[in-house]
Amino acid sequence: MPDYDYGHLPGIDVGQIFKDRKELSKKRIHGPTQAGIWGSQAGACSIVLSGGYEDDIDELDFIYYTGQGGQNSSGKQIDDQKFTRGNEGLRISCDYNLPIRVTRGFQIKNGPISGYRYDGIYYVKKYERVEGRSGFLICRYTLESEKTFEILENEIKNNLKPDYKKAKRKQLNINTTIRDTKLGESIKKIYGYRCQVCNVYLKTPNQPVAIGAHIKGLGRPHNGPDIIENMLCLCPNHHDQFDKFSFYIDYETLKIKELEGYKNLKLNLNQKHKLDREFLKYHYENYLKNNPTQNRN
User: pTM to 2 decimals?
Assistant: First the structure.
């Protein structure tokens, strides 16, 4: 069992300021006094944002967080990161949907004037290993607050810097979280609930199991449209693999690539399905980002 607790801690309020890392550790908000991730093989429970990594992106309720490791004593990235230690902890937290306490330090634009501010609970929505700005592989995590942007901003407004500015946002980021369920049902009916990759029909006593999967993901960071031209009918296994960029579909030939047992077989495409291949191209570009060794060969 880990030596820490998950989630909110009694007596600790969102927006509360702590003098330094030692106080954070004493209050059990974030144990390590230097490392940015508090986690292990049992998952991670907290992170601190303090401006230590050039690939971080912070929009308050939405964070692109860079894992630990690969830096020299000056904070320059000189080596690849791996899914070990805290990085592995955050990966496990994503897989098991564990809550992450997030604290922001005075060093970053969305942090407090001084000290460290507890900003509540976030969840890791995605993890990937991609090439960072310095050309080395980094473990990158997408985190989202359990609160809406407006509620979070209001709760910490008294402890924001005077020059704080909201991140520029597109209305699309809000709207795309509301999916058109009719589209998902339509794509499944077009293919008779059979996966377009493996042609498997998963029968149950009630409804067959199939997923109306978006090729270019909805919401941040992809902001794909909720249209049938951006969808495939997949079984749960191939949906999960496709979503995690384990394989791709050639946008010109529709051949299935890098999927064991299905290499160079073609995607089943019904004439009623007006697939926009630009979305397959976008998925392929992200496949390369998430499989950097493909670019290095």
Answer: 0.71
